Sequence to fold (271 residues):
Amino acid sequence: MTRLPILKLTLASLAFGAVQSVVLLQFDWFGGAAASAAGPIDLLLDVTIVVSSFIFAICCVALGYALIKWRVKPGDESDGLPIHGNTRLEVIWTVIPVIIVVALAGYSWAVLDDIESKDADRITVNVYSQQFAWTFGYPESGNKWSEGELHVPVDRQIDFKLHAQDVIHSFWVPEWRIKKDNVPGITTDALVTPDKVGTYQLICTELCGAGHATMRAKVVVEPQADYDKWVAGLEQEVPGGLLLTADQALEIEQQLQEKEGGIEGSGVDET
Ligand SMILES: [Cu+2]
Fold:
């Protein structure tokens, strides 16, 4: 049996992996960054790209070497070797990927734990989503609300409480990186600390119906003083119906019907 040129294969894999990493890291995968979570998340992605590049390189070099080295000779009609298995090889190619996956999972966990830690001075903003519009409630400012336009102060952690009035929607401002589903019947949280003043777009990223592509809202990140002034200028309070989840609204409607109509309201037999 021929011995493998381990040194050459290793060098080829390292070279291929390094070139691929350098090429892939040139792309601006996520675009502009405007929240404190963007740095750690982008670094995590870069590390994953580099690790994946070297794994891909090892596979390609091994496959390429085997294809060239053990290519069948012209006229060779014989069978291949009756190889049954190789326990040592199988242990190695199980243990190494497990170590890599566990390490990356641990790193991801640490990043998530870091970006989801709550600041003491965070503010809460309610996000209401429905086909096909976004509205926002500011519970710490007299429960005022704005339609289609979200304002938040810069360098302050915002605890977005996400609500859905009809179907599942998803809250995503690309520059903030965080993306979270709005689910009917429950309230989900997204913690974001915007760190750059500017105007961004909130995009629904859950296919929610015919108008999904148009389901966007303007996001304005501004200094605290400007934010305070803007919220103070809002006139309307959050309408009662929006404060309810779709299930709660349905329950109340049913209760009202039962009170009003007796038998016809409840429909089902009551014996
Ligand atoms: Cu939507």
